[in-house]
């Protein structure tokens, strides 16, 4: 993947790293001071965005306490303050701490969209329209354009899953680097892969419900019901069903209830942290 471009500006590198590089990519000059808390918060937000949008802009930080000569050339702005430079010209600037969304909107207005991302968005539109062959074609082109764009490969895994190509999805996901598998979207997809595989031997939902109506503590039916619920986006009922199974028989299939609960928690830890925290506490109380 492209590396984030974050530099500390000095008199020795400002010409090359800021002025010259601005002819290739937008350069956001961030004026900050160690004694100014808001400017440190701005640094944190901008550094995170620089990591997320690696290769699309350069973050150039100027410590106004250490680089007073440079700050003076820019009219001594009071931190936090940014200036966005393109082609050696200041195209916009503003004072004060901004929200992440405000910074993101700023970049979206001036950044040139990376070609593979453009293809990826077109693939998403095709997917939403049910044009799965076109979506696959566009994602394949995007992957060829930028093999290091992990988001493309995660989208391909999802496409394979949606079109019932479980083995292809599993194979592709297994080849992704750890950083892709462990990022929030990757963890969610890993969970979908897990639960989709579990459902391969499951009976129809009507049969599961009928069995539970007669035998509410049937382990297999509780397990398959939780899997069905997860894959249909009914997260809290799925957690409740898995906890019920754990209470009924925590040793079912060599500890499968606990393994599946942990997988479900990891799957939704980023998108529904409060819900996961609630049921983790419940689960922990059952372990004690």
Automatic annotation (TrEMBL):
One GO CC term, this protein: cytoplasm
InterPro entries xref list: Thioredoxin-like_sf, Thioredoxin_domain, TPR-like_helical_dom_sf
GO molecular function: protein-disulfide reductase activity
Domain spans labelled Thioredoxin: 10-102
GO biological process, one term: response to stress
PANTHER family xrefs: GEO12009P1
Protein name in the entry: FIG000875: Thioredoxin domain-containing protein EC-YbbN
Organism: hydrothermal vent metagenome
Organism ancestry: unclassified sequences, metagenomes, ecological metagenomes
């Amino acid at each position: 993947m492209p590396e984030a471009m974050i530099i500390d500006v000095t008199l020795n590198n400002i010409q090359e790293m800021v002025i010259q590089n601005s002819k290739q990519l937008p350069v956001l000059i961030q004026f900050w001071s160690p004694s100014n808390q808001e400017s440190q918060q701005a640094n944190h937000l901008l550094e995170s965005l620089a990591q997320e949008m690696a290769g699309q802009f350069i973050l150039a930080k100027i410590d106004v306490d250490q680089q007073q000569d440079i700050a003076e050339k820019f009219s001594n702005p009071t931190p936090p303050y940014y200036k966005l430079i393109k082609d050696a010209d200041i195209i916009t600037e503003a004072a004060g701490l901004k929200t992440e969304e405000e910074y993101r909107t700023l970049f979206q207005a001036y950044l040139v969209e990376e070609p593979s991302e453009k293809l990826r968005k077109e693939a998403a539109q095709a997917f939403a329209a049910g044009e799965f062959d076109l979506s696959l074609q566009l994602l394949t082109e995007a992957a060829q354009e930028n093999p290091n764009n992990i988001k493309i490969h995660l989208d391909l895994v999802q496409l394979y899953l949606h079109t019932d190509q479980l083995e292809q999805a599993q194979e592709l996901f297994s080849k992704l680097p750890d950083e892709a598998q462990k990022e929030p979207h990757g963890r969610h997809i890993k969970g979908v892969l897990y639960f989709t595989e579990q459902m391969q031997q499951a009976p129809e939902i009507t049969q599961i419900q009928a069995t539970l109506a007669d035998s509410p503590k049937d382990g297999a039916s509780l397990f398959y019901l939780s899997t069905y619920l997860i894959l249909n986006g009914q997260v809290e009922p799925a957690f409740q069903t898995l906890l019920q199974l754990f209470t009924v028989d925590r040793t079912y299939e060599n500890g499968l209830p606990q393994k599946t609960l942990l997988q479900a928690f990891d799957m939704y830890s980023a998108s529904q942290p409060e819900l996961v925290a609630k049921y983790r506490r419940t689960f922990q109380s059952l372990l004690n």
